[in-house]
């Protein structure tokens, strides 16, 4: 699905039913793609819970850039993308998330997007070796409950338990969370299950 935004075209890869229990919108890191192992693991869990999943390639990546640029423009484009996806799937609970930079976008825009929760994979708490440049306010300011899944060897840091509703730390994992993606999916499963039998779904 191609989506035009004020800051360029985006592309959403859609999986799941047309009338889902919930909609999960996921996106990549600053130099990654929508086929990252951890994103695919969470997608598979959501599909098993009767959710629809949109994996979004943001405009900067679709244009071939490796850096997202202005956070304001990135967030503006994201909200346009989410609006288009919600128009397609109707009034079902929206959960948004992503890995690394994508997790930051999901946190920053959660309230404006009307999300009920955020899945933050490999949240980059600070640049490597620069803990003083913390991004913890993005987590704490999401305005909705956030699930964080990080590896204990992540050079970008690991959020504290108090920084989000739930912080799951996977032993032996680094920033790419690709040692055992199934563990990432298992961490997300109970979090997503709460929306698998939503009132909107039951009323249909």
TrEMBL record:
The keyword Hydrolase applies. It holds the Pfam family Abhydrolase_11. It comes from the Bacteria. InterPro entries: AB_hydrolase_fold, KANL3/Tex30_Abhydrolase, NSL3/Tex30. Gene3D superfamilies: alpha/beta hydrolase (3.40.50.1820). Coiled coil: none annotated. GO terms for molecular function: hydrolase activity. Residues 23-166 form the KANL3/Tex30 alpha/beta hydrolase-like domain. Keywords: Hydrolase. The keyword Nucleotidyltransferase does not apply. This is Alpha/beta hydrolase family protein.
């Amino acid at each position: 699905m191609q989506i035009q935004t004020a800051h360029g075209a985006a592309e959403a890869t859609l999986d799941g039913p047309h009338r889902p229990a919930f909609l999960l919108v996921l996106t990549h890191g600053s130099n990654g793609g929508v086929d990252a192992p951890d994103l695919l693991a969470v997608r598979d869990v959501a599909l098993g819970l009767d959710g629809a999943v949109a994996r979004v390639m943001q405009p900067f990546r679709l244009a071939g850039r490796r850096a997202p640029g202005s956070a304001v423009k990135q967030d503006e484009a994201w909200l346009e993308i989410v609006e288009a996806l919600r128009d397609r799937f109707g009034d079902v609970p929206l959960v948004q998330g992503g890995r690394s930079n994508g997790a930051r976008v999901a946190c920053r825009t959660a309230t404006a997007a009307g999300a009920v929760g955020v899945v933050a994979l490999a949240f980059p708490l600070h640049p490597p070796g620069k803990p003083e440049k913390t991004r913890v306010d993005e987590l704490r300011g999401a305005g909705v409950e956030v699930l964080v899944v990080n590896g204990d060897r992540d050079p970008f840091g690991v959020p504290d338990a108090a920084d989000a509703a739930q912080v799951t730390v996977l032993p032996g994992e680094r920033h790419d969370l690709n040692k055992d993606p199934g563990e990432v999916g298992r961490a997300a499963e109970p979090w997503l299950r709460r929306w698998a039998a939503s009132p909107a779904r039951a009323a249909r």
